[in-house]
Write a structure and sequence with these properties.
Helices cover 46% and strands 13% of the residues. By secondary structure, the chain is of the alpha+beta class. InterPro entries: Phage_term_ssu_P27.
Amino acid sequence: MQDTPHSAAVIPLHSGYSTHTAIPTQAPLEPPAWLSPLARRHWAEIAASLNKHNIINELDQDLLAVYCSTFARFIELDERLEQTGMVQVTSTGYEAETGTFTAWNKLLKPIMAYAKQLGLTPPARVALRLTDPEQTDLFL
């Protein structure tokens, strides 16, 4: 097979869904213009590694963009939490979560879901493990 920017090799994988997956060989993905500067920095870090290990292709670009955007918002909220704290005292004297903490906390679940889909968690990387006995890199 000739390597072109959009060629793919079929490599057997251990998976509950399929015994073969197309692993793309391609040029690095570019972030969409609408990403914030912080999300773009995260994209650069993540996309380089995912590309290096042939885990993503252009079909995953939107998912990666949403992950990076959500992660950037999480970081911005985390920085704001340093100033506002997680708890506030209400007008009636009770302690309650701050709005910033509530928003921060709500982003954890989608971030983890996106991370799993992109192979960014240890279990997700193990699920991508190649069946080739010569393959020793579990983190593709």
